[in-house]
Amino acid sequence: MTILVTGGAGFIGSNFILDWLEERDEPVINLDRLTYAGNLENLAELRGDPRYAFVRGDIGDRPLVENLLQKHAPRAVINFAAESHVDRSIHGPGDFIQTNIVGAFNLLECVRAHHSALNDAAKSAFRFLHVSTDEVYGSLDVDAPAFSETHRYAPNSPYSASKAASDHLARAYHRTYGLPVLTTNCSNNYGPFQFPEKLIPLMIVNALAGKSLPIYGDGMQIRDWLYVSDHCAAIRRVLDAGRPGETYNIGGWNEKPNLDIVRAIAGLLDEWRPRADGRSYGEQIAYVADRPGHDRRYAIDAGKIERELSWRPAETFATGLRKTVRWYLDHPEWLANVQSGAYRDWLEKNYAER
Ligand code: NAD
Ligand code: TYD
To answer: Is the CB of 214 under 6 A from ligand 2?
Structure first.
C-alpha cells in the first residue's frame, strides 16, 4: 500500500511525511510543485529511503496526476498543496485561486476517475483527505463560542475564500460522486520547517537579526496555536478512523493574542541567546499598519475529534514553543538557505510601506 501526499515539501507536509515514515512502513509519494514555500531540504534525511519518492509537479496537471494514480495506485491521497499565506493572498490572489481552487478541482477530478475504476473493496477502503484551515469560518467576537464543524463559512481573505471553495468542492465530490472524502480544519500551526514569513518564525528570525518585530495593529488578534506534529498525528488519526463525508476541526485548546506570542518568543531568546547589550528582544517590538480585513479571533472546538477519534494534542504551547525556538536556533543553515533573494523581495513588499 502507498499514500500520495501533495504539497509534501512545505511546512506541514514535510513534517507529516517525516512523522509518517518514522511511525509506519507504508511508502509515500510526494507531489509538490516546489513554489517558494516548498523546500526539499526539509526531507533531506529521506534521501535513499526506498519508502519515499518525490515528484515535482502541479496538482492541477491532470495527465501527471492521472499517471501517478495509475502507476502507484495509492490507497489514499492527502492534499496539503496550497498557497497558504494570507498577506501574500492580499498582495496577489491569482495564485491562490489557481492552486487552491482550480488545482484542487483538477486533483479531485483525477481522484474521482481513479476511484470509480477501483474494485469494490479498494473503493470502500480509499480515502481523499483534504487539509484545510479554521480561517474558512471567518472572525469570532471575543466572547463567542469556538468554531464547531457546523459553524457557517464566512471567509474574509482571498486565502481563506480559496480554501473555503476547495472545502466545498471536496464536500460536493463526496455527496455527488460518493468519493470517500475527509476534511480537516486546523488552527495555526507552528514548529520546525515553517517558512519565516509566518508570525512565529518571522519573529525569531527578525529578533536574531536585530530587526524590528512588526506587530500588525494592536497585536490583540487571537489565534489558536497547535504544534505541527500534533496536527500530523490528528491527520493520521482521521485517515485511519474518520468517517467519509465528515469534517473534523483540529486545534490546540490554546488561544493567544499575537502580542503574547511575540513576548514569549522574546523571553526564550533572552534566556538562550541574550542580546549583546543585555537588553530584551521585547524592545524590538514595533507596531505597524494592520492587515486589511484582519480577522480578530479564531478559536477551535476540537471536541468532535476528541470524542469520536480520541485525539488530543500532546504538546502544550509552552513545550511546543520551546521546541520550535530551539529548532530555529539549531538550524541556522536551513534559515540561511530559505532567506534567498525572493524572500528579501517579499519582506520589502510587505513591510516597507507599513
Ligand atoms: P506551505 O505554504 O508551507 O506549503 C505548501 C506546499 O504546497 C509547498 O511545498 C508548495 O510548493 C506546494 N504547492 C503549492 N502549490 C502547489 C501546486 N499547485 N501543486 C503542487 N504543490 C504545490 O503550507 P503549509 O503551512 O504547510 O500548509 C499546508 C496545508 O495546510 C495548506 O493546505 C494550508 O491551507 C493548510 N493549513 C495550514 C495551516 C498553518 O498554520 N500553516 C493551518 C491549517 C491548515
Ligand atoms: P500568520 O502567521 O500570517 O497566520 P494567519 O494570518 O494565517 O493567522 O499571522 C498570525 C497572526 O500574526 C495574524 O493575526 C497576523 C499577525 N502577524 C503580525 O502581527 N505581524 C507579522 O509580521 C505577521 C507575519 C503576522
So the answer is: yes
Strand 222-227, strand 255-257: pairing? antiparallel
Domain boundaries, the chain: 3-189+227-253+294-314
Tell me, in angstroms, the distance from the centre of ligand 2 to residue 187's CA.
Answer: 13
Q: What is the pLDDT of residue 353?
A: 82
Per-residue model confidence (pLDDT) at position 354: 86
Cα 257 to Cα 121: distance, rounded to the nearest angstrom: 48
User: Quick one: fold of 3-189+227-253+294-314?
Assistant: Rossmann fold (3.40.50)
Told to judge if 135 belongs to the known catalytic residues of this protein, a careful annotator would answer: yes
**Mean pLDDT of all residues in the chain?**
98
Per-residue model confidence (pLDDT) at position 201 = 98
Catalytic residue among 58, 134, 197, 224: 134
Cell of 184: 480537516
Task: Name residues of the chain where pLDDT drops below 50.
Answer: none
pLDDT one-digit tens code per residue, 144-191: 999 999 999 999 999 999 999 999 999 999 999 999 999 999 999 999
* Ligand lying nearest the CA atom of residue 217: 2
Q: For the chain, how far is it from start to end, CA to CA, in angstroms?
A: 50
* 116: CB partners within 8 A, 6+ apart: 123, 177
Amino acid identity, residue 62?
R
**pTM of the predicted model, to two decimals?**
0.98
- Look at residue 225 and give its three-state secondary structure: strand
Ligand nearest to the CA of 292: 2
Helix axes 258-272, 317-330, angle to 10 degrees: 50
The Å distance, Cα 224 to ligand 2 centre, comes to 12
**What pLDDT was estimated at residue 303?**
98
* Ligand 1 binding site (Cβ under 6 Å of any ligand atom): 6-7, 9-13, 32-35, 37-38, 58-60, 80-84, 99, 103, 131-133, 163, 186, 188-189, 195
Q: What pLDDT is recorded for position 94? A: 98
